[in-house]
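Task card 7
Instruction: Convert sequence to structure tokens.
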Amino acid sequence: QLQLVESGGGLVQPGGSLRLSCAASGFTLNYSAIGWFRQAPGKEREGVSCISRTNSTNYADSVKGRFTISRDNAKNTVYLQMNSLKPEDTAIYYCARRPAYCSASMEYYGWGQGTQVTVSS
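Output:
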């Protein structure tokens, strides 16, 4: 079964850090672009970051300079390092894939179940 599984969410104080993981099973993610998305209560899902098969990366303006996406092909996992977290980063975070290169559209598939990130004092 081809799937992506997110983990690493939790409760953190403003200014804190978390590292999210997106682990692939049933396929090798080397040839995929992997995107991170988030959805806050009452809001639409939005793109956060993406890494292509060639390791090109992009970020939403709201997270630039604070979040870093990376991949470890040996572990078949993509990470999202989140630093200087703000209350407005609170959301369910999802990962998904598409062939090779990132896209500004939401044309990704294989969505995981998500991991909750809550930033609160």
